[in-house]
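We close this part of the discussion by returning to an individual protein. In the encoding step, the backbone of a single protein was reduced to a row of integers, each denoting a local shape. The sequence in question and its structure tokens are set out directly beneath this paragraph.
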Amino acid sequence: MTEHQNREVLHNSASQETQPKLSAQERLAQSEHYVRAMSSARVLRSKEFALARNSNLSGAQAFGEAAAALAQSPEEIDDFDRSLLTTVSRLGTYMDAQREIDDINNVRDFEKQRGSDISQDDIERLAELKQEYMLPFNHAVKELILDNPTLNAGDLRDNLAVAYTAIYGRHNTLRPEQPTQEISRRPAEDVLYNIEAVINGMRHEVATETLFAAAGLNYDYNVTDEQDKHGRDIYAEVDGKWGGIDIKASFGKERKTHQRQRFSKAVWTGLTDADFRGPKDDMSDSVSISFATAKKYAPAFIDRIRKMRSGELGRQHRAARNTGSRALQYHS
């Protein structure tokens, strides 16, 4: 019996009514990889997958469409399963878009060394890729985090990576007789890095809401796609004035954004990986922070927003580029 068949047997036996219902955290932490053993099997056996496969879509494309259809279906699926199916359904197109974005950004870095920039077509293509493929995947991951604050970030990353390699590796050709029409695969290191970056970015966005709540400030996370595309992750009222903020997951990302964009709204939360210890401060590498942690870091975060709005943050970052200074970094 193959490893895949073993996983199917484990899934089928665990699905019997005699088995106790596991929590989302327990299911995700299982060594049998929840995403691969359960969700991928459900999708591959579905009529939606068969229909999509018979309409000349590749296996990977068919899987994405079938997973999205199941996530919206009226059948009895718990909320965690729906969120997970939605996230996995957008994984393949996200990874392909990320590869194209990386290629364009590499050209941009080369052109900037020559004192030039990429073409207007490439600039518009970057915006299109972000709007059509990056944001939907980001939003799916964010919803998963919001609904399941006790998830472990590493487990979530590893399971999504397993889903990608299992689904988009085994089912990546349109037809055996047409091997040239493929969904591109990425090296395992790239898959892990990119998925981890999204999870980390989204958990910082969610943590931002907790920081504002701890500071007693009004905020609005219901941004439009257009606002999101232009780096407005959340709007907040600081010192009586509403404004958009581009949340960054690290000091380095904040600095790089300000050095590239003169009027950037980028602000680092001030949080590091060690601060994500769950709602009760009893976990490690969680997707959320506690209210106590938010109260600790909220004052420095709000002060950083003030510096961003005044332009001081950007000026200091650009000055640091010339001196090599990292004096702005903080974690108090």
The chain has two domains: 1-12+22-186, 203-332. Residues 203-332 form one domain.
